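PROTEIN DESIGN WORKSHEET
SECTION A - STRUCTURE
LENGTH: 431
TOKENS:
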């Protein structure tokens, strides 16, 4: 066994507790949970971690931090973040987002307008790998459908955010998927397949609920919806390539090159700007990359001091067996996301602990990665101070509390996942 022989020490968790107090406290005081950059809170937590345990010298602590940050999974995760950012910047500049939205709306039957918003949101978020980008693209369209069809605006926006959370949890280029896969040590295609079958029932029931809720309405799209099918191809290449199991770097680089070619040929990207648009996308991933590095440093010290072992002992004393371990990971992911209001940060923080739990209770990396991603997405789609609901509310003049009653998908996703944990035993080949 690894460091699990060390004695558990609850005081070692102080840096994480300090971060949560500072982050949540600043959000309560300012009424804005994004007023304080998360990286500042994590740097303070890292300083606290360095101040702890005087039995370990500063030089030894730096060595521990360097080993933690230099972990293979951390380095690969950060590189994938940057590669995904490059693809996102290129495909957006090439007009892929607008063409994908317009293509979906062009084939949308008027009788199922709200269900269509959910389905298009699912496709776009899986393709783009960002729930925020999906909400920004579809929220104005949802407002138009609400005004013309007479559906309540919260229902329409709820469908958009539900679709956005579907892809946030499943997309091959989503930062949450990347973080979950890398921290647990499994393949993206395997995690996608396992995760898809867990959330599929939730998606189907969500479709039925929105269909029943809006079955008496109709909507005709009068404005032009221009799209270029070639601008959608880079998304399809990335999605299909990832599902086929191609190397993630190769898939993202290939998607980036395809996006640049489509953008230049179609005139969306001037030839002199091809490197600029990729750079803009990469820059957009700097925050989560730096946060991942700092969190890895904190976790390395917390683990060295016995904090991870304390959590394992606490979970071990309260739950039994493989199912109990999975429920423990679910609870851990949920609580950290509710505290941080950022599901990627929550996965980066909880990932190393979840990995230890999975090894302790003989849970496959695929299952632990799926549980991590699912339950952080569940709470991210329900907390009123999360970026997704705040963004949707600000774009439509609503409040998060107006939208929450129609967030069917995150609730159903949680129920589906819990039933899966309780009644579906892992196959031996998965472990």
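SECTION B - SEQUENCE
RESIDUE ASSIGNMENT:
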């Amino acid at each position: 066994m690894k460091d699990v022989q060390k004695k558990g020490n609850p005081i070692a968790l102080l840096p994480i507790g300090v971060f949560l107090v500072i982050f949540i406290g600043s959000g309560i005081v300012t009424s804005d949970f994004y007023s304080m950059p998360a990286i500042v809170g994590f740097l303070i937590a890292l300083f606290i971690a360095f101040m702890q345990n005087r039995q370990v010298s500063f030089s030894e602590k730096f060595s521990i931090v360097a080993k933690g940050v230099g972990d293979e999974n951390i380095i690969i995760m950060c590189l994938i973040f940057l590669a995904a950012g490059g693809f996102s910047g290129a495909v957006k500049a090439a007009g892929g987002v607008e063409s994908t939205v317009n293509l979906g709306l062009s084939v949308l039957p008027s009788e199922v307008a709200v269900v269509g918003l959910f389905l298009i949101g699912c496709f776009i978020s899986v393709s783009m790998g960002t729930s925020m980008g999906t909400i920004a693209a579809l929220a104005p369209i949802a407002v138009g459908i609400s005004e013309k069809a007479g559906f309540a605006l919260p229902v329409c926006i709820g469908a958009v955010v539900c679709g956005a959370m579907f892809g946030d949890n499943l997309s091959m280029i989503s930062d949450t998927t990347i973080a979950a896969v890398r921290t647990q040590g499994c393949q993206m295609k395997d995690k996608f397949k396992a995760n898809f079958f867990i959330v599929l029932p939730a998606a189907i029931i969500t479709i039925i609920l929105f269909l029943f809720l809006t079955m008496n309405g109709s909507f005709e799209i009068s404005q032009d919806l221009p799209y270029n099918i070639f601008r959608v191809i880079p998304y399809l290449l990335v999605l299909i390539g990832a599902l086929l199991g191609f190397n993630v770097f190769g898939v993202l680089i290939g998607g980036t090159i395809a996006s640049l070619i489509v953008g230049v040929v179609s005139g969306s990207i001037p030839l002199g700007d091809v490197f600029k648009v990729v750079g803009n996308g990469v820059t957009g991933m700097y925050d989560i990359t730096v946060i991942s590095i700092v969190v890895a440093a904190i976790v390395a010290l917390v683990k060295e001091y016995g904090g991870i072992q304390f959590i394992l002992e606490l979970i071990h004393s309260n739950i039994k067996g493989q199912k109990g371990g999975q429920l423990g990971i679910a609870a851990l992911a949920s609580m950290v996301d509710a505290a941080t209001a950022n599901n990627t940060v929550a996965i980066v923080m909880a990932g190393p602990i979840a990995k230890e739990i999975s090894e302790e209770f003989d849970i496959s990396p695929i299952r632990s990665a799926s549980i991590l991603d699912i339950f952080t997405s569940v709470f991210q789609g329900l907390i009123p101070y999360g970026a997704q609901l705040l963004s949707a509310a600000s774009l439509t003049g609503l409040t998060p509390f107006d939208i929450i009653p129609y967030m069917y998908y995150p609730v159903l996703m949680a129920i589906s996942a819990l039933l899966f944990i309780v009644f579906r035993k892992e196959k031996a080949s998965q472990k």
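SECTION C - NOTES
Residues 313 and 353 are 12 Å apart (CA to CA).
The chain has one domain: 72-287+307-430.
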